[in-house]
Amino acid sequence: MGSFVAAKIAPVRGITDPLIAEVLGVREALSWLKDRFPEVQIIEMDALLVYNALQQNEVDNSYFGLLIEECRLLSSDMPNIKFNWVKKSANQVPHTLTKAASSSHDDLEWSYFSPLFLSTVLFVDLNNE
Fold this sequence. Notes:
Elements: E1 6-9, H1 18-36, E2 42-45, H2 48-55, H3 63-76, E3 82-85, H4 92-102, E4 108-111, H5 119-127
Parallel strand pairs: 2-3
Antiparallel strand pairs: 1-4
């Protein structure tokens, strides 16, 4: 609905596979939101492979599949959570946060009020949906 709820960055080093990075991001977001923001009901993502894997109930014993299963388990504790796929042009906030995390040495989080560097990006995302 265009309102900022929360954001967190946590620098992670050594992940070179974009698909693994995407699913790790979803797993970390679920873990963080479950305890701090149980009212969150939607997680948006532009990684179609991750989105599709989360929608299916197939067993996949690969590293990717095991991470997807962790996401499913975490989300089962959040009965109202829903995953939405959005086009990349309407999902620039996570990419902006990823860039910020790559230049940060510390975990940072914001609640209810976005950091200034996200203001324009939030507006652009809202208008590109």
